[in-house]
Every structure is written in structure tokens, then in C-alpha cells.
Amino acid sequence: MKLKKILFILFFISTAAYAQHNFLYSQYYFSGILINPAYAGSQGALNFTSIYRNQWAGMEGSPENISVGIHSPFKKGKANAGLVFLNNKFGISCETKFLGVYAYRIKAGKGSLSFGLQGGVEFDKNNWNEVETTEGNDPVFTDVPNKSTSGIFGFGLFYKAEKMFIGLSSPQLYSTAKDVDIAYTPLLLSAGFLVKINDNLKLRPAGLLKYVKGSPPEGDLSCSVYIKEFLGIGLGYRSNDAAYAFVDLKLNEQFSAGYCYDYTLSSLSRYSGGSHEFMLRYLFSYKLNTKSPRYF
Do strands 218-227 and 231-238 pair parallel, antiparallel, or not at all (unpaired)? Predict the structure, then answer.
């Protein structure tokens, strides 16, 4: 394979993943802290959620994402706090983030409104020495890995009632990295609600809208059916990207697991086996009534 073609593929994969990695998760409604710091503590108890995503499986250098979010309300007062770990690999690039999250929640009508901030550090690494060239010992691609460190900051608003939620956020509003323009930082709007059909059947439509200056808005719509509160099955569509199907299993009052398969709708479908996403969530019942089902 010619060097130019190799570089094009790596650049394409890296650019696509970099532009979407913070909010491409199909199960974002269960991992709201990954896209909105104001989500922290909204479950009413200490929450642990982890997601692993393998995007465009089968393609060499395809993006892999691992995330861990831990958050909780304080036992007294209106404050909430959390920690987020993100590790993203795409092509020759690796990105790791550590974030501290704070949210302040107040009573608002029949629900609650929270204001969230997050800040942390991002480590980026590009392994140029892993690029295969047509001629060996190319000095451009045999150098040591390129590394950088930067500070990142974000904000969010989140309103939640018993049967609905709506959030507005910019998870990476500002970065100290010199090549990041704040004007092109994504703005995210998420929402969902619960519809009771009968005692054994409920519907949960949800949506996520992303806006970046200079680009058309991108949307993600899904709807799931919950059977007797322990099994959820759903379908979704992400504009110009994928259609997906997912299942959510509530193993007991505190432990949930989910799986999602994305079918790529772009020309990449000829080269990949789709995308796989696995979710685990555990809700610690140290304080409040965690027997109330959590649908988002």
C-alpha cells in the first residue's frame, strides 16, 4: 500500500474519531455524565457506569473507546460530584482524559435543575513510528512518539423529573491546547421521556442533537420498549452515520448491563463489521430509595 493511501486512512479515522469520541456512545442516556457534567448525582445514589465501544470493527486502526464514570450526591446539601476517565484509541493516536465533575442541584417544579462544571487533563500521543512506509528508515516516521498535555473544561445544564429529562452541555468548552478553537466546540442537546402503556410495558423515546459551528446539526434518535422493568429492547438512528439496535437488562435493583450494535450506513460499511458497545452500571444504595427504576 502506498504511503499516501496509508496516511489518508489514518487521517480519516483519527479525524472522525476525534470529532465524535466524547458523545458517540449509543447508550448515552445511561452514561449522561460522559456528555453532561450536570448529570452528576442525578440517580440519587453513588453510581458507577462503564462503557466499552469498538467502532467500525474489523478495520485496522478503528476507534476503541473505554469510559468510566463515578458520581454521587453528597449526603447533605445540594452538591454532587464525580470522576470521569476516558481512553480513546484511533489509528496511531491515543487520547486519555481524567476529569473532576461538580454539579449543584435545586428543586424546580416537579423535578430538579442542576448546573455542572468539569475540568481535568488530557494526554495525547501519536505513534508516527508505527506507520508503514514504502521505504524503510524514513526519518519522518521513525521518530519517538509525539506527545502533548492540555487542560480541558466543560459545562452543562440538566433538568430531570420522574418521567423525563432534558440537558444542554458542552463537555469540552475550552482547552489549553493551541490547535483547539472554542468557536468549533460541539454543543449538545439531549432529551428523553417515559410513556407508560400498562403496568408491564413502557416506552422510552430519547434524542441527542449535536451542533458545531460551520457544520449541519447531527441527530441521534432512539426508542426502547421496557418489559416488566427488567428488560429493554430498542432501535435507533444516527444521522449520516448508523442505525442501531440495543438491549438493556436489569439484573437486580442495582446492577444493569447493556449491549448495542451499530450498522454503519456510510461507505465504510464495505470495510467494517459495524460497531459494538457494552455497558455496565451499578447503583449503590447507601442513601436514597434505589428501588425506583432508572430509565435514564
Answer: antiparallel
